[in-house]
Amino acid sequence: MGLLDSFEKGLERAVNSAFAKTFRSGIQPVEIASALRREADTKAAVVSRERIITPSDYLVRLSPEDYERMLSLGHALNDELFALLTKHARTQGYSFSGPLHISIEGDAQVATGTVRVNSSSVESSVSWQGVVEVDGREHPLTSARTVIGRGSDAGITIADAGSSRRHAEILWDGERAMLRDLGSTNGTKVDGQKIREAALAPGSTFTIGRTQLTFRVVPVSKGATR
């Protein structure tokens, strides 16, 4: 079953069947969904092999007549569009540049039966942040130097008896990351190889004791915190 098929069935469950009479002419809800998906695909920006971002703010413009028809669905339509676009982004491996927002408005410049979609610029709304993932939890690198170990004073504390209190540190300048072992008892490994210090590419895994950690660089909406 395709995404749009799922959308249509979801919409059918969400709204009263009497609404079907409303859509005998003009734009159809599934066409709005398709236009949103095309906009996300068109504006998706490949930053690296592991990073593809797409806008988070979408404005759907319809003719006044079509807009009035869509208003009859209330929140059901917007909820379905939100769910569809979220699922499409996840399937394609996209990250939104911020919290997803979809709005619909009437525009006398748009012809009946057509849909226009505008989205925010990716570059103007996103910045990048380094994070370390441990057991499914992300720890943002909020300073230039972050110590990792089992000590309570470590920036990232791991409950691993095989790690030292101050086992290793990550140096992060906002663009690049370096992992440095701090003279630990059992050493630090990157991709299975013991290191004293090594550059960390996005997606690199490293091991401290028996704990595996992953370094990632993720998009963050400007002004937001993780």
From TrEMBL:
Ranges where the FHA domain occurs: 146-195
Pfam families the UniProt entry points to: FHA, FhaA_N
Superkingdom of the organism of origin: Bacteria
Keywords (A to Z) from UniProt: Phosphoprotein
Entries under InterPro entries matching the protein: Cell_Proc_Reg/RNA_Proc, FHA_dom, FhaA_N, FhaA_N_sf, SMAD_FHA_dom_sf
Stated name of the protein: FHA domain-containing protein
CDD domains, alphabetized: FHA
Source species of the chain: Microbacterium arabinogalactanolyticum
Gene3D superfamilies per the UniProt record, alphabetical: 2.60.200.20, FhaA, phosphopeptide-binding domain (DUF3662)
SUPFAM superfamilies: SMAD/FHA domain (SSF49879)
